[in-house]
């Protein structure tokens, strides 16, 4: 037997030397939910450890993320008032605009991404303007998206991340940002966002469940893989700076397909349902939470992800520092 693979697994030193993928705190992005009108943080029952934060708490949490060495944070806003168009999404004194401004003033070296969608802002919970037949009007929604991303840029956001899966959304955002002088502000496109059953806990956290119907008319069918490459082609042509796959665990093949098809950075969103399943199993003693989380996040890296959006980010960064 000339070759024995176990030779390179014999001890920790050699395993570390030949390791193909490395997970670092700066690869991780922590999502935060910021709720307008709250005086204290509120736990999200379906997502143990995740909070709806009042504006007064966002700087404290931003400092935690910065001190943990995370790559950045992504913000989701929950306004006190909602309407059919989600107009609070682009209000100059909206909850996200205030959160961004506070973070950039108090923690200027923290990288702040804003999720650009309307599901948290509309009274019907869909990601855009509804027509009379209940279908989201793609092009009217793009008009509002232009307004929203410019307001995020004016507040000081470092990146915007459109997640509504409207056709032409990257092109519309790029034109709006460039037309207002924000040529250097990057766009992270939710390139392959699937209509997934894994989003349930997020809809509790963001208070964004549709009041009627579902989002299968604009989010992708989980059965499709090749379609993601078409979405990638469109987003690249429209000027995306980063492309994303959401969810993660059931779509690692899609992460790999994008990685093999683009030179752009690839992100993956380790979504709420994936997070909550691990938390629930860990609470019952069925799994080792730390080991499973780090193995999962490393799996995303192995599939080709450069960036990982995950509710585990702060915990994972601490565990990685302990291992260093």
Automatic annotation (TrEMBL):
GO terms for molecular function: porphobilinogen synthase activity. It catalyses: 2 5-aminolevulinate = porphobilinogen + 2 H2O + H(+). InterPro entries: ALAD (IPR001731), Aldolase_TIM (IPR013785). Belongs to the ALAD family. Keywords: Heme biosynthesis, Lyase, Porphyrin biosynthesis. It holds the Pfam family ALAD. It is an enzyme of class 4 (lyase). SUPFAM superfamilies: Aldolase (SSF51569). It comes from Thiohalorhabdus methylotrophus. PANTHER family: DELTA-AMINOLEVULINIC ACID DEHYDRATASE (PTHR11458). CDD domains: ALAD_PBGS. Pathway: Porphyrin-containing compound metabolism; protoporphyrin-IX biosynthesis; coproporphyrinogen-III from 5-aminolevulinate: step 1/4. The gene is hemB. It comes from the Bacteria. This is Delta-aminolevulinic acid dehydratase. SMART domains: ALAD. Gene3D superfamilies: Aldolase class I. Its EC number is 4.2.1.24.
